[in-house]
Write a structure and sequence with these properties.
The chain is mostly helical. It has 14 helices and no strands.
């Protein structure tokens, strides 16, 4: 990947490394569907004016069907699955299950982009790094298995959506694509959000978490992610789910004074090695010179 792609990769990894914690804070006072609808509404209010200022809203009208499909498979479906899933399982297990996404993408694209030994090794090493980093905390309530299944299904949906962006929506401006998908999300989920409007007082930290989810973890992150897919392809873009837990753990160490354990360093090293193996270009064999026939 070039320098711009790496910068986008790091930006998305950072912005998608904190939602699991913010979701846990928000759903203490707000329903999961309210949180997802709120994220979509806030992100749309940020992104649509940007698209209008750049004169790219026309692309939204022309490709509304494509944008609507992407809204379902990339936002509405996985956001709801993850948010409801986190009601029943820990955020660390959520991060580990979401890290299945690069494997899903690699398998779906195995015909178009054959899996080399280096890429397989990178995927395995990277996933191992995530496992070491977040641990395997399977604690949860009696519906923990259902919650884990929901998050795993969200990872599959993310993988399908990433490939869909590369193949069907790469020509749509990023601000238009992100603004359209979040606006559709807000419209579709608005009735359900109204039905679950909080009746008890909502703490300020829940509103702050929702605002951060909408502005940074949805609006800015989607802009960067769609640009990353166009720049580096779906296989490499999907690797952000390996780095997200690294960011989440490092934020805990830097901002919450959590201890820096050996597993943190080892997990970070494995994730870095896995990403390097999965993103490097494989050597292309030159065709052999034809042997002249006497």
């Amino acid at each position: 990947m070039n320098r711009r792609a790496w910068l986008l990769f790091l930006l998305v990894s950072m912005l998608w490394g904190i939602p699991y914690f913010l979701i846990k804070v928000a759903i203490d006072d707000l329903s999961p569907v309210f949180v997802v609808a709120g994220r979509g509404l806030i992100a749309a209010l940020v992104l649509l004016p940007v698209a209008a200022a750049r004169g790219s809203l026309g692309a939204l009208r022309a490709r509304l069907g494509t944008v609507a499909v992407l809204a379902v498979v990339h936002i509405i479906g996985p956001f709801l699955l993850i948010t409801y899933g986190e009601v029943h399982i820990t955020s660390s297990l959520t991060g580990l299950l979401i890290a299945v996404e690069p494997v899903v993408i690699a398998l779906l694209l195995s015909r178009a982009e054959p899996l080399t030994r280096g890429r397989v090794a990178g995927l395995v090493v990277g996933f191992g790094g995530v496992a070491v980093l977040v641990g395997l905390d399977v604690s949860g309530d009696r519906l923990g298995l259902l919650g884990a299944g929901m998050v795993l299904l969200a990872a599959v949906s993310y993988g399908v959506a990433t490939i869909f962006v590369q193949r069907r929506a790469a020509d749509i401006p990023a601000e238009t694509l992100a603004g359209g998908t979040t606006a559709i999300t807000a419209v579709v989920l608005a009735p359900f959000a109204i039905m679950t409007w909080p009746t008890e007082p909502v703490h300020a930290n829940a509103w702050a978490a929702l605002a951060a989810l909408g502005v940074f973890c949805t609006a800015v992150a989607l802009l960067a992610f769609y640009a990353l897919v166009a720049e580096a392809g779906s296989n490499r873009a999907g690797l952000v789910t390996y780095v997200n837990p690294v960011v989440a753990v490092l934020l805990g160490v830097l901002l919450l004074n959590e201890s820096l354990r050996w597993s943190t360093v080892a997990g970070f090293a494995l994730v870095a090695a896995g990403c390097w193996l999965s993103t490097r270009r494989s050597a292309v064999r030159e065709p052999a010179e034809p042997v002249p026939v006497a």
